Amino acid sequence: MRLVYFASLRERIGKSEEELDLPDSLRTIGELIDWLAARDEFYAAAFAKGIARAAINKKHVKPEALIAGAREIAFFPPMTGG
Amino acid sequence: MIPRKIRVQSENFDAAAESAALTEGRRDIGAIASFIGLCRDEAGTLEALELEYYPGMAEEEIARIADEAERRWPLLGVTVIHRHGRIRPGEQIVLVLCASAHRAAAFSAAEFLMDFLKSRAPFWKKEHRADGTQGEWVAAKDADEAALERWSRDA
């Protein structure tokens, strides 16, 4: 799975994108976040306090969204455009 | 389909030229509401903002917001230009133009677009300080999220 990170999450994780083999047991964005946060202290810091927002295939999704069929999953903090 | 222009770019924009382009050859437009967002330095400590964005999604998300604005109001044209990269205080960040037959729709749609751009378009601002120290990521404001509530009540 292609994962991309932006802003403070990108800085904490230390990369802007990566390809990861995800366990088949992961069903939702929320489960993926928990799995990533358990990888090491940098991922844990990136996903701390539940601030991470997610997009699947460049559309906003909620934590309960299913990841099956996703081509690209993005994680980022609350947006500050405009 | 009404004329629509959505751009994410590092270059500056010319609001007057964009407005002229929107009305060129048209006789039916009675109002254009124009909003320009600028980089500001309230405390005198900001060297520049660095605007990061999600290429592809930023354009798509702005288009989805424009779709919704066109559903809600009788618009005759929409232009949104959002810059990325390094932007210094006093420089322009974002332009929204909404054209309609009458002012009410143009004003409302421009405000709606800006409210959703703030909290839904994937852009993030980082501060670069004038003293050379590492700045912070600008935090999202609760007020920006609250601004969206109003539009869901109006729907």
Strand and helix map with partners:
The complex is a heterodimer of chains A (82) and B (155).
Chain A: E1 2-5, H1 7-13, E2 17-19, H2 29-37, H3 41-46, E3 53-56, E4 59-61, E5 72-76
Parallel strand pairs in A: 1-5
Antiparallel strand pairs in A: 1-2, 3-4, 3-5
Chain B: E1 4-9, H1 15-23, E2 31-38, E3 46-53, H2 57-72, E4 75-83, E5 85-87, E6 92-100, H3 103-120, E7 123-129, E8 134-137, H4 142-154
Parallel strand pairs in B: 1-4
Antiparallel strand pairs in B: 2-6, 3-5, 3-7, 4-6, 7-8
Give a written overview of the molecule.
The complex is a heterodimer of chains A (82) and B (155). Chain A has 82 residues and is of the alpha+beta class. Chain A has one domain (2-76): Ubiquitin-like (UB roll). Chain A has three helices and five strands. Chain A has a five-stranded mixed sheet with strand order 2-1-5-3-4. The model of chain A has no long low-confidence stretch (mean pLDDT 96). Chain B has 155 residues and is of the alpha+beta class. Chain B has a single domain (4-154), classed as Alpha-Beta Complex (Aldehyde Oxidoreductase, domain 3). Chain B has a four-stranded mixed sheet, sandwiched between helices. A four-stranded antiparallel sheet of chain B has the order 5-3-7-8, with no helix packed on it. In chain B, helix 3 (103-120) crosses helix 4. Chain B is globular. The two termini of chain B are 22 Å apart. Classes of the chains: A alpha+beta (82), B alpha+beta (155). Chain A binds chain B through residues 4, 6-8, 55, 58-60, 74, 76-82, and chain B through 37, 51-54, 56-58, 60-61, 82, 93-94, 114, 117-126, 137-140, 145.
